[in-house]
């Protein structure tokens, strides 16, 4: 088994990859480093716990189709053959041949699932059951011939909703998560946490959490931004009215001056005598 692993920049420099949280990106690198020579890993959750990633990081990688998962719990790196080319003398075939049989290889060498096989805690797998009826008159005469009648079409199962947010009370399907990340690429996590805290604090319930987040976003956008108030009364500082003060004080000042002049006149007369 080869020990060296490589990564194609066309994948890890793409917007779809870089838009993921750093913890999801780190988990992708660790999973790729520990995959076998065909990109299969049988212990993704152990690796997730080992590096301190959350279940949400693993779900994001699945939702973004960077990894494909099977019912057995095994996963495969979707773009493995784009990342790595291993020489035949070092190549060791995967031991997960049953899972490999469910895959097909596209022209660009990426894997795709021919048959849905996703773990029950992430996605549902569907399988049509058939009801086999054997005609009593033919039983024992021709055991190889069976009258196979398909059963009634099973009811359409609802997509699995996963728990997100600090309080694990925001329920979103994988399709909901993809839409949320597309519509709010820069703050989709903050919007999930906002709804999670609100539900936890108020006890309110909502039928569709994606619709609730969208509705809140529309209200936030429609809410007018606070503006500075205009036309408020302004206190004006009045200048002293010196003219009025001068006019008011003129009679008394005039009397004082006249008195001083009279005293001065009397003094001059006494000196002249």
TrEMBL record:
Composition bias type Basic and acidic residues, residue spans: 135-156
Disordered: region residues: 135-159, 218-255
Skewed-composition ranges (Polar residues): 243-252
Official protein name in the record: Phage replication initiation protein
């Amino acid at each position: 088994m080869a020990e060296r692993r490589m990564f194609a920049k066309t994948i890890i420099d793409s917007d779809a990859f870089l838009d993921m949280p750093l913890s999801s990106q780190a988990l992708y690198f660790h999973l790729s480093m520990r995959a076998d020579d065909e990109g299969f890993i049988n212990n993704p959750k152990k690796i997730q716990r080992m590096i301190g990633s959350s279940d949400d990081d693993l779900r994001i990688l699945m939702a973004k189709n960077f990894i494909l998962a099977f019912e057995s719990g095994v996963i495969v790196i979707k773009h493995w053959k784009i990342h790595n080319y291993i020489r035949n003398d070092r190549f060791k075939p995967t031991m997960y041949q049953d899972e490999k049989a469910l895959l097909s290889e596209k022209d660009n060498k990426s894997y795709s699932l021919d048959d849905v096989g996703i773990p029950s805690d992430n996605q549902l797998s569907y399988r049509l059951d058939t009801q086999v009826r054997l005609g009593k008159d033919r039983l024992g005469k021709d055991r190889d011939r069976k009258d196979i009648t398909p059963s009634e079409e099973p009811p359409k199962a609802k997509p699995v909703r996963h728990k997100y947010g600090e309080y694990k009370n925001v329920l979103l399907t994988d399709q909901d998560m993809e839409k949320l990340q597309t519509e709010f690429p820069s703050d989709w996590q903050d919007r999930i946490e906002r709804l999670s805290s609100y539900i936890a604090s108020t006890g309110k319930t909502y039928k569709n959490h994606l619709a609730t987040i969208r509705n809140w976003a529309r209200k936030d956008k429609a809410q007018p931004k606070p503006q500075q108030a205009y036309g408020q009364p302004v206190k004006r500082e009045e200048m002293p009215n010196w003219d009025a003060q001068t006019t008011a004080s003129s009679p008394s000042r005039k009397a004082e001056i006249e008195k001083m002049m009279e005293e001065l006149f009397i003094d001059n007369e006494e000196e002249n005598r």
